[in-house]
Specification:
Elements: H1 2-5, H2 9-43, H3 48-59, E1 69-70, E2 76-77, H4 80-91
Antiparallel strand pairs: 1-2
């Protein structure tokens, strides 16, 4: 925090070095993960279904789930108890 609050050149250089090191660290971790995942998929080459399932999981991006439902008035409800009550009313 001191480096960010004091905008001297040495502090800016220190922050940039820390950011660069962190980016390098996470980039290397991602490479290791990808290598391990590829090796795992290569071992499943005898079972084609598992191979393609792993490839599809690997290629898909993260998609967050949204649990939002409209109530009787048309308002959005995100509370789990309210959603369950809404579906109960809907199907009864």
């Amino acid at each position: 925090m001191e480096w960010l609050q004091d905008p001297s050149q040495t502090n800016v250089d220190n922050v940039n070095n820390v950011r660069r090191d962190a980016s390098r660290h996470f980039r290397n971790k991602k490479k290791e993960y990808l290598k391990a995942k590829i090796e795992e998929l290569e071992s499943k080459i005898k079972n084609i279904r598992d191979l393609y399932r792993g490839i599809n999981d690997f290629k898909k991006a993260y998609q967050p789930r949204t649990n939002i439902v409209k109530d009787e008035k048309g308002d959005f409800v995100a509370d789990s108890h309210s959603i369950l009550a809404r579906w109960e009313n809907h199907f009864s």
